[in-house]
Amino acid sequence: METITAQQAMEAANQAAFLTNNLWILIATVLVFVMHLGFSALEAGFVQRKNTVNILFKNAMIIAIGLLTYCLVGFNLMYPGADFAGKFFGFGGFGLNPSEADLTSAYGNYTYWADFIFQGMFAATAATIVSGAVAERIKLGPFLLIATLLVAICYPITGMWKWGGGWLDAMGFYDFAGSTLVHAMGGAAALAVVIVLGPRIGKYTESGIKPIPGHNMPLAAIGVFLLWFGWFGFNGGSVLSADAASVSLVFVTTSLAAAAGAVGAFIVSYLKFKSHDLSMVLNGILGGLVGITAGADQMGPTSAILIGFIAGMIIPFSVIFFDKIKIDDPVGATSVHLVCGIWGTLAVGIFGKMAGMGQLLTQLIGTLSVCAFTFTFAFGVAFLIKKAVGIRVSEEEEERGLDVSEHGASAYQDMENIAYNFSVK
Amino acid sequence: METITAQQAMEAANQAAFLTNNLWILIATVLVFVMHLGFSALEAGFVQRKNTVNILFKNAMIIAIGLLTYCLVGFNLMYPGADFAGKFFGFGGFGLNPSEADLTSAYGNYTYWADFIFQGMFAATAATIVSGAVAERIKLGPFLLIATLLVAICYPITGMWKWGGGWLDAMGFYDFAGSTLVHAMGGAAALAVVIVLGPRIGKYTESGIKPIPGHNMPLAAIGVFLLWFGWFGFNGGSVLSADAASVSLVFVTTSLAAAAGAVGAFIVSYLKFKSHDLSMVLNGILGGLVGITAGADQMGPTSAILIGFIAGMIIPFSVIFFDKIKIDDPVGATSVHLVCGIWGTLAVGIFGKMAGMGQLLTQLIGTLSVCAFTFTFAFGVAFLIKKAVGIRVSEEEEERGLDVSEHGASAYQDMENIAYNFSVK
Amino acid sequence: METITAQQAMEAANQAAFLTNNLWILIATVLVFVMHLGFSALEAGFVQRKNTVNILFKNAMIIAIGLLTYCLVGFNLMYPGADFAGKFFGFGGFGLNPSEADLTSAYGNYTYWADFIFQGMFAATAATIVSGAVAERIKLGPFLLIATLLVAICYPITGMWKWGGGWLDAMGFYDFAGSTLVHAMGGAAALAVVIVLGPRIGKYTESGIKPIPGHNMPLAAIGVFLLWFGWFGFNGGSVLSADAASVSLVFVTTSLAAAAGAVGAFIVSYLKFKSHDLSMVLNGILGGLVGITAGADQMGPTSAILIGFIAGMIIPFSVIFFDKIKIDDPVGATSVHLVCGIWGTLAVGIFGKMAGMGQLLTQLIGTLSVCAFTFTFAFGVAFLIKKAVGIRVSEEEEERGLDVSEHGASAYQDMENIAYNFSVK
C-alpha cells in the first residue's frame, strides 16, 4: 500500500472545500433564477388583467434571450480578461471559449461554467426590471430588442467597470452585489424607456392622477416573497465562495434590511395615506433588499436595519414623486431599483466598515456614472426605435389590452367569458 | 517551500467540513423562509376573496416584525447563555451581541450569524400559524401586537425550556424540530385568540354549521406544496449540521409522513363525507409534517409512515370537532398545528428509538406545559386588548370584507368591477 | 496529545467531500420535489376552471402514493441488487431494508436514505406527466390506480434496464437523467391512456378542431418556471455527486437548452400562427429541458443550444400533429415529454462526446423499447379498467366539470357565485 503524505491530504482537503464553494455558487444560481419567476409574478399581479399574458410572455422571453446573448457576447464583454481589455471597454470574443486552464483547474473558488451561469442569471435580471415599468403600452418587438441590447451590451459594459476590473474598481468604488450595477442600472434604463414611451392612457387626467390598481394581489405578494427568496442567492452568491463568516453575515444583513424595509414603508404610507397599503409594504421589502445589496458584506445588523428602514421609507415618497412628474411606472420599478439602488450605493459610504467622506464621494461618482451611461444608452435605443418603427401600441390596442392585441389570448379565459357576457347584456 | 504537516491537513479538512455544515444551515434558513410564503398562499387561498389583501398584509408584516423582534430580544431570551439564565427564564441582553469568540471561531457546526438567522426564521413561523385561525374578523393592529408579543416573548421562553437548555431539556423531553415548541405552541396561541375573538358572522347559525369555502384552491395547494418544500429545511436544518446519515434519514421520514398524512386524510374524509375533499388532503399533508417533526431523526420509515398516517386521519375528526364546539378556524390551523403537534410529540414516546412509557409521560408533560403556558399567555394578551381597544372589526366591516375596511383595496380589482356591476344591475 | 497521521487527515478530507456530495443529492431531491408543484400549477393553469380542484387533488395524491409505493416495491424493483436480478427484471424485496453495510458506510457518494428519497421523487414525476394529458374527463379512482401501477411497477422495470444495470445499460444505451426513462416513458403512458379515453366532448367537431384554452395563464407560467427550477436538481442531481466540473456543466447545458427551446417555439409558432403564443413558448422551454436531459453531461454549450432549439421548434408541429390525429392532450404532455424525450435521447447519438452512427442506433433501440413496453403496459391497464368499471366520467359530469362531480367543490367559490348569478339572470 502506498503511503499517504500530508501534502496529499492537504490537497484532498482543499478539493473538498472547492467542492462546497462551487456547489454554493451553483445553488445561488438556482436562487437567482427564481428571481425571474418572482419578477414575473410581481409584474403580472401589478398590471391590469388585460395585460397579463403579455407580461408573462415578456418575462419568459427575457430569461431565454438574456442567457443566450450573455453566452454569445455579454460574458466576454463583462470579463474580457487579457483580450482587448481597457478600463472602460474590452471584449474577449464570441461564445463560451474556456481555455484548457479554465476547465481543468479551479477558476477561483468555482469552475468556469459555474461562473458563467451565475453571472448570466444576474445579467438577465437587469432587463427584467425594465419590463414592469414599461408594461401595458409598449410593443412586444421593440421591448424585446431593448431588453436584448441591455443584457448583451449595456449591462456588461457598466458591469465591467467594477466587476471586470475597470475604472470604477480602480478608483475604489464598492458595489458588493449590484445596488448600482444591477438595480440602479436596470432602474435607469426603465426610466429612460418610460420617458420615451409616455404614460398610460387615462393615468394623468385633468381631474388628477388616477390610480390603476393591479389585478391580482396574491400574485404580486408571491412575487415579492420569491424575490426575497432569490436574494439569498443574489447577495449570498456574490461572496463568490461559501465562506462561512461572509455568507452568514450577508444572510443576516439581507433579511434584516428587507424586514426593516417593510416596516419603513408601512409607517410612512400609514402616516401619509391613513391606510395599510399592501403594495407599499411589498415594494418596501424590495426597497430594503435593493438598498442593502451594495454593502451586504460590510454592515452589522444595526446598520443593515437602518439602511433597509430608510429604503422602505423612501418608497412611498418616491412613488408619489414620480407620479407628480408624470413618470408612469405601473409597478414602481424606478422607485425600488433606481432610487433605492442609488441610496444603497451611497449607504456604503455612510454606514459600516467603509464609511467615510471619501468613500461616499466615490460611491456617488460610481452610481451616477453607471446611471448616466445606462440612461443615455436606453434613451437612445428607445428613441431610435420610436422614430424607426414606433414603440407604443395604438390607443385602441392599449384600451383593449395587449393580451388580445399582441397575443390573441386572455389570461383567464373563463372569466373573460363572464365579463364579456356581462358587458353585452 | 514549507512542509505541510498532517496537523495542518487535518485542520484544513475540518475547515472544509465546517464550510459544508454552515452552508446547510444557511440553505435550511432559505427553505424555512419559504414556509412564510407557503403560509401566505395557503391562508389567502382558504379565506374569502374579500379578506385576501388583509391576510397577505399580515403575513408580510409578521415575517418583518418577527425577524426584527427576534433580533432585538427573542434570540437572547431563547439562548440566554451564561447571562441571567434560569431553567425557566433567562435573558442575554438586547440586540445581537456576539462575543469575539462567537465571531472568530466556529459556533458549533456553524457561525453565530447562521445560528441567529436560522432560529429567527423558525420563530416567525410560530406567529404565522395564528394568522390563519383568526382570519376574516380580527383587527389589524391588535393582531400585529399579539403576533409581536408571541415571537418576541412567548415563543423564546417556551423554546428555551427545551432548546435553550431549560427544565424540559433537563427532564429528558424530546422535540427534535418543534412539533410542540413551534406547532403546538402556535396552535395553542391560535386557539386562545380564536376563543376570545368568537366565530365569524354566519358560521354557526340556528339551521346548522355553514361551510365558508376558501376563494382560491390553487393558491391553497401552492401553499401546501411550498410548506412541504420548506419543511425539508425546517426538519433537515434541525440536525444542526449536514451530517449525512441524520439529514438523509430526516428527509425520508419527513417525506413519508407527509405522503401518509395525505392518504390518511383521504381515506377518513372519503369514508365520512363520500367525497374527495382537497382541503382535507392538503391539511392531511400538513398534519403528517407536523406529526413527524418531533421525532423525525428517531424513526425508521415504517414508524414515519404510521405517524403521518395517523396524523392525517386525525385531521377530519379534529376539524369536525372544533366546528361542533363552535371554535371557528377558517384554515384548520388548530387541527393541523395544535392537535397533530401534540400527537407528534407523544409519538416520540410510542414509536422509534426513544419509545417507552417513561418517555411518553415526559412527552405528555412537556407538550401540555408548553401548550398551557402559551394558551394562557395568548389568552391574556388577547383578552386585555379586547377590553382595552377591541379586537374585532365591526359587523359591517366584517361583512364588507377586511380588504376594503382595513386597506381600502381589493385583491382582484377587475373582478371586483365585474361583481359590482353585476350586483347593481 | 495524540499525533495525527496523514492517513487520518486524508480520511477526514474524504469525509468532508462525502458530506458535500450527500448534501447535494439531498438538495437536488428538494428541487425535484418542487417539480411536483410545477406540474400541479402548469396543469391547473392549462385546464378549464371547472376541473381545477380535480387536477390539484390528483397531483397531491400522486406525490403521496408515488413515494409510498416506491418505498414499498419500486426502489427494490429498480435497484434489485444481488437479489433475483436479471437483465430484464429483478426484485430486492418489500420495503426499505438497508443492510448494515448500507447504513454504516458511504453508499457511493451518498447514503442509502439519500439514494432512496432522490430516486423516489424522480419516480413520482413520471406519473405526474400522465395527469395533464388525461385531464378533464378521466375518473378519479381509475386514474389513481393507473398512476400507482406506473410508479410501482412499470417505471422501476424500464428504469432498471438502464439505471439498475439491465440490458440497455449492457448494450451501451445512454440516458443521463431520463429523457427516455422518465419523460418519454411518462409521455408514452400518457398517449396510451389518452387513446383508451378518447377526446374531450366538443374538442373535435364537424366544423373543425375547437381550442379549449386554459383558465389561468399566470398559474401555467409559474408552473413552467418552477419546473425549470426543479430541473436543476433533476439533471444536476443525476451527476450523483457534487463533482464541480460535471454539475456546473449540467447547469449550463440545461439552462441554455431551456432558453433555446423558448426561442425555437417562439419562432415556429410566430411563423405558423402570426401571433405570440405564450403556451407554445412555455411548452418550448419544457421541450428544451426534456431534450437536453439525456445528454446534459455530454454536451458543450453550442450543442445544448441546438438540442434545445430543435426541441422547441418541434413543439408547435407536434401539438398540431396530435390534434390532427384527434389525440386530445389538454396540456401538450405527449409533445413535451414523449416527442422531445425521444428527440433528446437520439440527440446523444448526434451531438456531443458520444455522437456516432452506432450510438444513434443504440439510442433508437433503447428509447423505442422503453416507449413500447410502457405504452403496452399503460394501454393494457387502462383498457382493462375501462372494460371492468369504466374509465371516463359521464357526459353530464364532464360538462358540469369534475370539480363538482368528483369533489362537490369549486376552485374559486366567489367567482362561481358571480358566474352562477349571471347565468340565471
Topology:
3 copies of one chain form a homotrimer.
Chain A: H1 6-46, H2 52-78, H3 100-104, H4 112-133, H5 140-162, H6 167-170, H7 179-197, E1 204-205, E2 208-209, H8 217-236, H9 244-273, H10 278-293, H11 301-324, H12 333-347, H13 357-388, H14 395-400, H15 402-407, H16 413-424
Antiparallel strand pairs in A: 1-2
Helix pairs in contact in A: 1-2, 1-4, 1-8, 2-4, 2-5, 4-5, 4-7, 5-7, 5-13, 7-12, 7-13, 8-9, 8-10, 9-10, 9-11, 10-11, 10-12, 11-12, 12-13
Short description:
Three copies of one chain form a homotrimer. Chain A is an all-alpha fold and 425 residues long. Chain A has helices at residues 6-46, 52-78, 100-104, 112-133, 140-162, 167-170, 179-197, 217-236, 244-273, 278-293, 301-324, 333-347, 357-388, 395-400, 402-407, 413-424; strands at 204-205, 208-209.
